[in-house]
Design brief:
217 residues; mainly beta; 8-stranded antiparallel β-barrel; 1 helix; 11% helix; elongated
Amino acid sequence: MKRFKKTAVFVSALCLSNLVNAQEKKWNFGFHLGSDQFYTGKAPSNPLNYKLDNTHSYKMGILAERTLNEKSSLTLGINYNLYFQEYSTQYESYGRSGGRSLDNYFDLDLQYNRYLIKNLNYFVGTNASFQSGHRNYQNGGNNFRANGKASDFNIGLNTGLKYTINSESRFKIEPYIMLGVNAFDKDKEEVIFTPNNQTQQHTLSNFYTRFGINFKF
């Protein structure tokens, strides 16, 4: 009887350990490095050939990944971004010249991941960002003044591919590419050209791309 009790206790402890271990394996945590690319829209004709230029952000963040089953998972990420806003002008036959300003903001990723083939997953997701002061900044130069009109809040939809380099390791490296579209313009400016006070709207495209890498453990 005593032997039976000892065996039962041992089996129960083993089952509990396996259950806890299985639960633990349903979560992966890690950090993320990447860069978003934003693209210029078609600039209207103006005396200085002013336009917003293609630009990018550098991002870093933390992530948590929840395994749903053997072929799918959910990823939640919080990112800090350093963002360059760039513009340029060209007067008559002179070369283009311009400037840029550095801003920062936070964004949130939510992605559904699905197994495709060995080590390769596709995902669909959404991104929400908040860039304080994005709609009321001012900058300018010789003969023009620009006022920020973009929304501080933006939300987008995206899709892409992730590849796990070392899927059997506890520490996983996962580069990925993403294509996305925002609901609102990433940048939007009201530009006033002097001395004739001509006013125009200049924007970046809603379309964006991202290249990044996840480190998970």
